[in-house]
Model the fold of this input.
Amino acid sequence: MKMFRKLAIVKEFLSVKDFKTKEQLKRYQAERIKERLSTHGTSFYPNSTKLEDFPIINKKIFMENFETINTMGIKKDEAFKIALASEDSRDFSNKIGSISVGLSSGTSGSRGLFLVSEEERVRWAGYILKRMLPKPLLQAHKIAFFLRANSNLYESVNSKLIKFNFYDLIIQIEEHIEKLNSTQPTILIAPAQVLRLLALSSDLKIYPQKIISVAEVLEEEDEVIISNRFSQKVHQIYQCTEGFLAHTCSEGNLHLNEDRVYIEKEWIDKKSSRFSPIITDFFRSTQPVIRYRLDDILVEEQEPCVCGSVFTRLKKIEGRCDDILNIKDIKNRPYLLFPDFVRRAIIGASDKVEEYAVVHGEEGLAIYLQPLELQDEVEASLQKLYIEQNILPLTHSYRVYKSKDLTFKRRRVQQL
Ligand SMILES: [Zn+2]
Done:
């Protein structure tokens, strides 16, 4: 079985190809979509080969219809029980038949359940290796992977050339530093806040060839700290339980994985190229993902990338739609303030800002700051933002920043 799995990963790895023109990509996508729609095999989706006949759904609808969307007849209660037991025991090898069950680490609201078959894991592994391994390929690598939970997806990749080490975020970072120093990984993969902590550690003595940020928004100020410390670009993987959606190219720019997923854009603000992706995955069949709207804010980049990829380029992944602040302009009309503006106002207030978090509630903004002494600077910077954007000033309260457990996804700006 293991041998078969490795061969299958290699097969997938070799089958991933680049497209020369947009037309070529469009033809490929049209074929894949047609095949996906005509073979979904669920009682939830309609029988049609036209995408527009399918409803646009979200996580809530997806979870409510868990049992009619999965094609394996798996019950929701059973899946939850297994996923929760794995989280408790930190043993992620439990399965239902050959299907792995995981819980999504959503930042808000209900937790999602995801089902992945052996074949889907293999495809995922082959694809991610092809897209992310440093060139030239076929060098030996030791990959250090920091995760909130090991969904046992990742261990399918271990081989002679590639060794995966899993670092559980529930364990103290000091312990990890020791293990990293003795293992000397060539590739380091972790959430942005962990990469930042590692970059700031004077005990850490590793020299990875590639650094990849996952699971959280990589903010500019963190990117600078990390790339300076390790003298290299910081790469990104944009992946959620719904699919592997984007990766950085050799130039370090983000591109959508349009050979795995078809992405419709639901514009949030077309002028600034901000949209939410509605995804249709070509290959997920245990739990088909069709016209699934993600609650994320992506910013499209119009400039083509010098890497030559025909895949849509992103300027950045900005955060979640939930985090857009619903406020009023000076004429008392509704106004959407993007979290990035608040973030930049705070960071721009002083180069001494070490940590911060902003929560928008009924009382205005609660601003958690480290060091707290910078509140006058931050206040002036936010007032300037309100004037520039013609918005009604919000009430602010300042509090000492307290760092959370690393198992929490970091959200700098948040709307309650
Ligand atoms: Zn590129």
Notes: The longest helix spans residues 22-38. The longest strand covers residues 261-269.
